[in-house]
Amino acid sequence: MAVPGYKHPCRFCGQLVEANSPYCPHCTRPHPHQMVCPWCFAPIQAGWRACNKCGRSLIVRCNKCGNEVGPDSDACEKCGTVIRHRCPTCAAVVTPGDRRCARCGQKLGEFWKKRA
């Protein structure tokens, strides 16, 4: 369990990260302390194909090559195509055209301009 005010190792790179950080500042991966559903942030386990809280699929198929991409990846490992976009503030999944993050309300105009 994460203790507020203390840093814990990132599960991807091992560097110390604030307990409530949505991103690792070292490797930039979202949710550095535990696997969570990219849609509702409920804790999940490796190998699950759907979230046990919101029911959404944790596996996304790449539109370009058809490779399956799990909840910890935002780009296809096979061809590099970006599969999921994440809010820069809270790491929730956002879709092109969203003006605000549905989870935290962050305005996304500049975020999409940088992605264009």
Oligomer: single chain
Determine the number of helices (DSSP H or I, runs of at least 4 residues). 1
Structural class: mainly beta
The separation of the N and C termini measures: 39 Å
Taking pLDDT < 50 over at least 5 consecutive residues as the criterion, the unreliable ranges are: none
In order across it, which strands form the biggest sheet?
1-2
**How many β strands by DSSP?**
6
Helical percent range? under 10%
Shape: globular
Following the backbone from N to C, one meets helices and strands in this order, namely EEEEEEH
What radius of gyration results from the CA coordinates? 14 Å
Overall mean pLDDT: 92
| Strand residue content | 5-15%
Largest sheet: 2 strands, antiparallel
Produce a short descriptive summary:
With 116 residues, this protein is mainly β.
List keywords for this structure.
two-stranded antiparallel sheet, 1 helix, 6 strands, 116 residues, mainly beta
What would you say this structure looks like, in words?
The protein is mainly β and 116 residues long. Among the domains are: 1-34, no CATH class; 87-116, no CATH class. The protein has one helix at residues 109-115, and strands at residues 7-9, 16-18, 60-61, 68-69, 85-86, 93-94. The strands form three sheets. A two-stranded antiparallel ribbon has the order 1-2. A two-stranded antiparallel ribbon has the order 3-4. Strands 5-6 form a two-stranded antiparallel ribbon. Strand 5 and strand 6 form a beta hairpin. The chain is globular and about 40 Å long.
